[in-house]
NADP-dependent oxidoreductase domain-containing protein
Amino acid sequence: MTNFQTTSPSDSDPIDSLNMTVPSFDLLDGTKIPWIAWGNGTGQAQKQALRCGELALASGIHHIDTAQLYKTERETIEAIKKSDLNRDQVYITSKLSAGDNDDPVPISEVVQSVKESIERLGTIPDLFLVHNPFVVPPGQLKALWKILEDLKAAGELKSIGVSNFRPQDLEEILDGARYKPVVNQLEYHPYTLVHLQPVLDIQAKHGIVTESYGSLTPILRYPTGGPLKPVLERIAARISKATGKNLDTTVVLLLWIRVQGVVAVTASGNPDRIKSLGEIATLPDLLERNEIEELTNVGKTVHFRFYTEHMEKDFPLPNLPNE
Ligand SMILES: NC(=O)c1ccc[n+]([C@@H]2O[C@H](COP(=O)([O-])OP(=O)(O)OC[C@H]3O[C@@H](n4cnc5c(N)ncnc54)[C@H](OP(=O)(O)O)[C@@H]3O)[C@@H](O)[C@H]2O)c1
């Protein structure tokens, strides 16, 4: 992790005035991104995006992850308006998604689609992502990226990035790019590490930050929890004892993600858990070096992802057990 920063009251960046104790990461276009986001794209968080968004902001989370697909862009800005925060105190991410039934967006309609997002949000999002490499017809990724670059150059978009991009998708847009994508948002947790290594290598070479979603998969979605379960439980018990707080295995995974230099995009529609997320956002690094290494090494003994889709297409899987 090379670009981990804790915001301080003396910093002048608007994001730094959000919440002085939530660490952020530097992006390669010179902006900063808070290390943890509450997403309104899944579960109850999506169904009750306005109410839960208000709770997330009140709890101390100042980074909301939305997308055209989630149909929660309006609720995102409404939650901010209902909160005690100003627009510039919240980091907003949205995404260009495929149409209903996954129909790709014709390249001639991309600008209009971006403008409609901005209209729904009532503001330019801090970060705008290409939701996946199939949001435009085959062979059009480079053309799509050029449109986003032009919008950024014209001040009509701020930071631009991608999501669910495999090595070949990244290489396609990096070739001749005027602006590199600042992030790639991926399903990222210890059980995806071996498979993702080729993507992570490209990102390290170019300074592209990883954002994780599905981060809690080893606990919530992997049958039995697998070999990480006892390790996570042991570490959760140790840090709970050391801090006198009740810190569970989800906290351990989120802290492991942060220490990798990865932005954690998580979600909750449960008021108590949303409140806890605000507390997790400001926790110091509680994991010991040997614990971080153990989580990484044990994670690398299994390959498992919840969101498969194209990530397992034309992207070779590692020879590892997946159950
Ligand atoms: N770019 C993409 O393609 C993509 C794909 C998927 C997601 N995302 C983004 O990432 C966000 C998070 O995605 P995710 O849902 O996969 O993230 P996640 O962090 O892996 O899981 C969040 C879920 O975990 C549950 N949870 C948290 N702590 C728990 C606990 N202690 N016990 C039981 N359940 C617990 C929450 O349920 P409760 O509501 O009950 O707390 C919530 O539904 C989305 O909302 C979206 O913004 C992006």
